[in-house]
Amino acid sequence: MMLMRWNMRLGLAALCGGALLVMLYWSRCTDITLRPSKPSIGSILNKDQAKHNKENIECLINGEYSVVCHRDHDEVYLPFSFIHKYFEVYGKITPADGVERFEWSHSYSKVYHPKKIYDPRGTFATFENYNVEVRDRVKCISGIEGVPVSTQWEPKGFFYPTQIAQFGLAHYSKNLTEPEPRVRIIDDGEKNLGNWIVSTDATLSREFDTELKSNILRFTTSDQASSQVWCKVNISQDFVLSLDLRLKPNSSLTVVLQNKDKKETVYLHYVTSLQLIYALDDHIYYGIGVENKWRRLTRDLITDMQKGWALLDKAKRKSPRSKFKISSIILMGEGSAANIRVSTSEHMAHFFAAARWLVTTQRARGGWPVRARRRVASRVPDLRAGWHSAMSQGHGISVLARAFHRSKDVTYLRAAQRALHLLDVPSSAGGVKAMWMDKYVWYEEYPTKPPLFVLNGFIYTLLGLYDLHVIEGDNSISLAKKMFDDGMLSLKTLLPIFDTGSGSFYDLRHFTLGVSPNIARWDYHATHVNQLYLLAGLDPDPILINTAKRWEGYMQGKRAAHN
Description:
The chain is of the alpha+beta class.
């Protein structure tokens, strides 16, 4: 008997042409559900497909279950719906020059090659691509602190230092990479005066404020709902509102947004309250505090609207900015307002909000405790609320170093230096330091016992140390410099054991806990690659650049050689 040799190819090029496109199995990636059973081939093939295509063949996978494949002479083609899940690859059919083609990729993430040597005064890593505030795990931007509130491990929301620092670093980086914002002045008290309309039982006056050193609007309205001072505007595309605002109790600022297509109206109320956010139909409320003092309020109105919708289970109503316009601004109660403007962005205002939060909330030992319980791995105790993270410390240092560079305010520098303390305190004593084989220091993103040795959080901590050392100036006895050098030695020593041969490990729990490895998903793997390319520009040791290149190759389907 002559044995036929089947050449099993995992390509899909042939599937995109000819009669194969009529087969649903090969045109969609979700039609086959894999089950740990062995169904008959008749239960897999439907009659219509068998009628139109007589070359279908059963593919028996490891003797456990079957999928429908296609035979063409000595070739067998597997459906991409199977390949996608089984080999964790990605693909889609896209039009190109009027012809459809199948685009295959081995990972879903992207590597950003540094365009220049990393500079602590410049962008932070690839954070110009980050949009922290739009993440689902961000409940909203606080109306009092101006920083994100996280729901990552606590549904009620809490201030997560890592997330707040990333918010600041993203806006700092965007400020350096994006064009100058377009600014529209609504009322500056001098050259541009808003067209304010005052109801019969309300008052509006202009005067000079010695604290702000500028002309302001002073307003009062009665308790009647119809009593208000409002300014009619018609502004599209620009939705970042900034103004100086001073409100007495039971007062508010309201911004009215209108959807030009659906004729939908949304009311954003910024009220004298300590409540974070609440929503009722198309009325969304943010508390901005109760103190009768001047505050600079900077709000991304579209983000505020979408976070309110999310509370109402309207998250899918994420209409593009181009569909909306600002139609009016309403003042109610009693207070003052000044320097009102709308712009495309206010990145530095958001950055300094994060920097101020880090300064005002820093504890005596220099840390920013995480106020949420964190379950990390099954064989280690949970991290109880109040734990510290090296990544929070490192990111915080990176924010504060840049804030000092931009403002020259030594308050930020001193806070960054205080943040070093916990990096030198063992996890068992409430710090974040672990040791590998009692020799190599590791700054723990999650300070568990035993340690996990998380890679990406450790490298971000190294960047914070490098940032502070450079911003401090050339100082041979710099504590930040010593900590950075010690950490780099650890990284270059341990880096090979993070290599899987086809990707990277997220941490080393398979060593420390004796459990299954925690393989980094592609977005974390891409972060590892980006970080190594960045560090390779600071340290000439070939292990950094060689590992970065090899790990990038894994994202393109390359694998370590077999014996």
